[in-house]
Amino acid sequence: MDIRSTLNEICDAFNAHDLDRIMTFFADDCVLEMPRGNRPWGSRFEGKSNVRDALATRFEGLPDVHYGNGQHFVDAAAETGISKWTLTGTRAFHVFTEAYPALVK
């Protein structure tokens, strides 16, 4: 599968809230950095189990979270891709959220 297809698959898995499918894209020694958290840079989760727990918490806290307006950028020579999307969702306590994070593969 090429990089752009992989990025599309990742985005589709996130929009399906399919943790099992999402986690197939992460290595055992993965790191996920999220912009929100108790540190100035947000939160950092290391290892597949911690990443899975963090994403489960995201889906619980934003039960209708959606990653839309996706744009994928690929540097084939560097075998690297970046996705940009608009995150929208209603928090479990009914406050609408919109953010513009980027996923780096």
Short recap of the structure:
With 105 residues, the chain is an alpha+beta fold.
Tell me what the structure shows.
By secondary structure, the protein is of the alpha+beta class. The chain has a single domain (3-104), classed as Roll (Nuclear Transport Factor 2, Chain: A). It contains three helices and six strands. It has helices at 3-15, 19-23, 48-61, and strands at residues 31-39, 42-46, 66-75, 80-90, 96-99, 102-104. Strands 3, 4, 5 and 6 form a four-stranded antiparallel beta sheet that branches. Strands 1-2 form a two-stranded antiparallel sheet. A hairpin with a 4-residue loop joins strand 3 and strand 4 (80-90). It starts with a helix and ends with a strand. The relative contact order is 0.19. This is Nuclear transport factor 2 family protein. Residues 10-90 form the SnoaL-like domain.
Outline the fold blueprint.
Layout: H1 3-15, H2 19-23, E1 31-39, E2 42-46, H3 48-61, E3 66-75, E4 80-90, E5 96-99, E6 102-104
Antiparallel strand pairs: 1-2, 3-4, 4-5, 4-6
Domain SnoaL-like: 10-90
Pfam families: SnoaL_2
Organism: Phyllobacterium brassicacearum
Keywords:
single chain, 105 residues, alpha+beta, Nuclear Transport Factor 2, Chain: A, 6 strands, 30% helix, Nuclear transport factor 2 family protein, SnoaL-like, NTF2-like_dom_sf
